[in-house]
């Protein structure tokens, strides 16, 4: 069967655009525009002259209080995303893939700004959208060449994408004694390099079909990135110039959110008064739809990228192509079952901000009336109204009779509204998890509370923020990492060098095979940096004790595990490059037997241990003297008590020794089991190698037998030259 015509494909896209417009241009657009106005602190529009217009900024304060935790979680770690191998042998490339994806986000793109805007847009606008795509850019690469002849130099100079910046002539004498002129050249080559680009979309730029519940839902059949572009930009993107010129300047009606952000009518002076057609603004719709374009008879729809220009009803088809997936990832702070648009922090806060603003304004109006009360003025008092209306401090008013002006007493009852304001603050804290104790800004909440109680209260208050971080990690960040990885595997055909951990590393996605899942390390439940560093310190101390007491060949800890702990300590200290502080044992060549120099780390550990032992000895001597003096003073009174304490101490020591013996036995059994497993793995590996060698030998024998048969056939052919070659005359 024939595939769809362009007109049929355009009709399908326009139908989806109409559906997305109907579903997106109603309540969601209005709510997102209102959320931005409340975040920006815009007036409500019901303000009255000579009355308070103060604004409560709860939406902004809530969003800005949550952002530091999210930024620290996702942008303060070197392992935000990490790929997990699905098969044996994928460990090396999955580690490389994790490093490469982080490099693409942080180095190839403005990662901090893009991810920051992505998360903040989600907190304000219900859903934040980020897009990735593969494109090429022209880069300048400086190269050198030495020993070029004049002909080679001329050919290099005539190359279109090469510019010679420096050359040096030298003379070289050949073996025959001839002197030859050669050139050493430094030149710049223009090179096209493909890479992954990221773009955070404004909320009104992303569309989705009305029945979709998520970007991975089976009901998702259409999603779109609509953007503005000048005719010149559209032509530079590769679209047909005639088609671009045929697109009308469409005054799109989906601009409420943009006008709320920019506080202006966007199309006042853009689409109607621009005299230059090249810079006229048009709409480009990059749609991704599930459609049975090929019409093979199977009736199975596949993803297709369709680019149109103009409006939803009068569009022009610009380009279409088959794709594997759409390039979008979404963040939503509070997921709602079976809905694409969940709730934002602004949704939880806007009604409270409205009530607090009304209360605050009434309190301020009452205070104004108390400080500047209204007055009762006698008509027969001869009051000079010009002097009365002059509010200069220390001024006077001329009257004909005393008491002509009397203040109308108004008691300020604003204090009665404070409990209501506090109640609203508690409601807001319960909704969002943003509290004074969680943010650490209010010292009063720490009074008369134990450290444990404060820590438990802070952990409970942060639970909602941690849930938002977990949702972000398991949805948007996971989709973004997997999308970037799939894109580089599909498009990058040449290896690329990146600078990582103070050294160069080669990334070749063409060698990466298999499908990996993505683990997002959002750092929840691990505490802050100080807590992490404390845990690593405790692990390092235990490792040091084992190394000192049992030696480097013990079955529990080696130098490699100790180096891993030190690396984590460097990372938890917000430092980069572990090799700047500790040498990697895997990169250190082994020392020949009999020439092993003292290990600096072990010497440091031994010195530290000796110092600790001296401190313990001095402390023990002091304690012994103190106990002896106490025993001598209270010998008769405390005899019975001392005997009892001695028995308790002996029992405790005995129990501790038994526990240590049991633990050592368990550790010994674990070590033996591990050694047995390693031995079995090695035996299996040797068996596999032996079988492989046997197969290769059998194959070689078969090849030799075939070659022998061929030679015999040549000999039997009776060729005159004895080589099996017949003359042409025969």
Tell me what the structure shows.
The protein has 730 residues and is α+β, with helices and mostly antiparallel strands. 48% of the residues lie in helices and 17% in strands. The strands form 5 sheets. A 5-stranded antiparallel beta sheet has the order 5-6-7-8-9. A hairpin with a 2-residue loop joins strand 13 and strand 14 (503-507). Helix 2 runs parallel beside helix 9, helix 3 (58-75) runs antiparallel to helix 5 (111-125) and helix 16 runs antiparallel to helix 17 (559-572).
Q: What is the element layout, followed by pairings?
A:
Blueprint lengths: L5 H19 L2 H14 L17 H18 L5 E4 L6 H18 L2 H15 L2 E21 L1 H8 L4 E12 L5 E23 L4 E3 L13 E9 H6 L4 H6 L9 H7 L18 E11 L10 E8 L6 E7 L5 E4 L13 H27 L3 E3 L7 H5 L15 E3 L10 H15 L3 H4 L11 H11 L1 H29 L4 E5 L2 E5 L9 E4 L8 H22 L8 H14 L27 H34 L5 H78 L14
Antiparallel strand pairs: 1-15, 2-4, 2-10, 3-4, 5-6, 6-7, 7-8, 8-9, 11-12, 13-14
Helix pairs in contact: 2-3, 2-9, 2-10, 3-5, 3-10, 10-12, 16-17
**What is the typical, i.e. mean, pLDDT?**
80
How would you sum up the major sheet? 5 strands, antiparallel
* Assembly category: single chain
Largest sheet, order of strands side by side? 5-6-7-8-9
Q: How many DSSP E strands? A: 15
| Tally of alpha and pi helices | 19
Low-confidence segments, given as residue ranges, are 440-454
Structural class: alpha+beta
Q: Could you give the distance between the termini?
A: 56 Å
Molecular shape: extended
What share of residues is helical?
40-55%
SS strand fraction: 15-25%
Cα radius of gyration in angstroms: 39 Å
């Amino acid at each position: 069967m024939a595939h769809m015509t362009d007109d049929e494909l355009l009709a399908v896209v326009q139908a989806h655009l109409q559906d997305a417009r109907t579903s997106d241009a109603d309540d969601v657009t209005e709510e997102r525009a209102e959320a931005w106005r409340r975040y920006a602190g815009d007036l409500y529009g019901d303000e009255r002259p000579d009355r308070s217009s103060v604004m409560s900024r709860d939406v902004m304060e809530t969003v800005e209080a949550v952002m530091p935790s999210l930024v620290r979680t996702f942008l303060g770690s070197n392992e935000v995303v990490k790929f997990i191998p699905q098969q044996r042998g994928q460990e090396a490339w999955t580690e490389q893939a994790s490093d490469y994806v982080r490099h693409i986000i942080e180095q190839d793109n403005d990662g901090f700004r893009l991810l920051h805007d992505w998360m903040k847009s989600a907190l304000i606008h219900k859903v934040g959208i980020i897009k990735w795509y593969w494109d090429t850019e022209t880069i300048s690469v400086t190269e050198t060449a030495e020993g070029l002849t004049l002909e080679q130099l001329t050919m290099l100079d005539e190359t279109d994408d090469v510019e010679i910046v420096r050359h040096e002539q030298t003379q070289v004498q050949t073996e025959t004694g001839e002197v030859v002129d050669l050139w050493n050249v430094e030149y710049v080559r223009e090179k096209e390099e493909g890479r992954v680009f990221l773009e955070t979309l404004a909320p009104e730029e992303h569309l989705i079909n009305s029945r979709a519940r998520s970007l991975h839902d089976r009901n998702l059949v259409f999603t779109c990135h609509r953007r503005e572009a000048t005719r010149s930009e559209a032509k530079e993107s590769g679209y047909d110039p005639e088609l671009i010129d045929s697109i009308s300047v469409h005054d799109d009606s989906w601009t409420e959110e943009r006008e709320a952000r920019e506080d202006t009518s966007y199309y006042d002076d853009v689409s109607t008064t621009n005299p230059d057609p090249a810079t006229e603004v048009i709409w480009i719709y990059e749609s991704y739809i599930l459609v049975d374009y090929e019409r093979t008879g199977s009736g199975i729809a596949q993803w297709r990228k369709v680019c149109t220009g103009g409006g939803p009803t009068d569009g022009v088809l610009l380009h279409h192509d088959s794709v594997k997936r759409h390039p979008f990832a979404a963040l939503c702070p509070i997921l709602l079952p079976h809905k694409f648009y969940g709730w934002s922090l602004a949704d939880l806060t806007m009604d409270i901000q409205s009530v607090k603003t009304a209360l605050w304004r009434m309190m301020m109006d009452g205070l104004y009336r108390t400080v500047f009360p209204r007055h009762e003025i006698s008509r027969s008092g001869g009051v000079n109204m010009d002097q009365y209306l002059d509010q200069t401090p220390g001024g006077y008013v001329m009257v004909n009779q005393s008491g002509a002006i009397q203040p109308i007493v108004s008691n300020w009852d604003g204090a009665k509204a404070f409990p209501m304001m506090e109640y609203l603050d508690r409601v807001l804290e319960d909704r969002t998890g943003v509290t004074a104790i969680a943010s650490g800004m209010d010292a009063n909440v720490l009074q008369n509370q134990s450290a444990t109680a404060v820590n438990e209260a802070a952990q409970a208050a942060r639970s909602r923020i941690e849930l938002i971080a977990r949702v972000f990690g398991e949805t948007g960040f996971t989709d973004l990492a997997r999308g970037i990885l799939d894109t580089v595997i599909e498009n990058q055909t040449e290896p690329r060098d990146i600078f990582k951990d103070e050294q160069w590393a080669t990334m070749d996605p063409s060698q990466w095979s298999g499908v990996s899942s993505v683990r997002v390390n959002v750092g929840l439940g691990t505490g802050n940096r100080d807590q992490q560093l404390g845990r690593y310190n405790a692990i390092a101390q235990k490792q040091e004790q084992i190394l000192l007491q049992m030696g480097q060949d013990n079955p529990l800890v080696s130098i490699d595990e100790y180096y891993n702990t030190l690396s984590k300590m460097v990372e938890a200290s917000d430092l980069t490059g572990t090799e700047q502080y500790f040498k990697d044992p895997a990169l250190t060549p082994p020392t020949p037997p009999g020439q092993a120099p003292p290990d600096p780390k072990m010497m440091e550990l031994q010195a530290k241990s000796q110092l600790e032992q001296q401190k313990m000895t001095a402390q023990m001597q002091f304690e012994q003297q103190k106990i002896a003096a106490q025993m001598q003073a209270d010998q008769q009174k405390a005899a019975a008590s001392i005997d009892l304490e001695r028995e308790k101490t002996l029992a405790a020591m005995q129990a501790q020794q038994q526990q240590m013996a049991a633990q050592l036995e368990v550790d010994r059994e674990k070590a033996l089991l591990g050694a047995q497993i390693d031995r079995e793995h090695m035996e299996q590996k040797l068996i596999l190698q032996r079988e492989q060698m046997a197969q290769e030998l059998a194959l070689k024998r078969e090849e030799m037998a075939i070659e022998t048969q061929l030679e015999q056939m040549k000999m039997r052919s009776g060729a005159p030259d004895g080589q099996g070659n017949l003359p042409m005359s025969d």
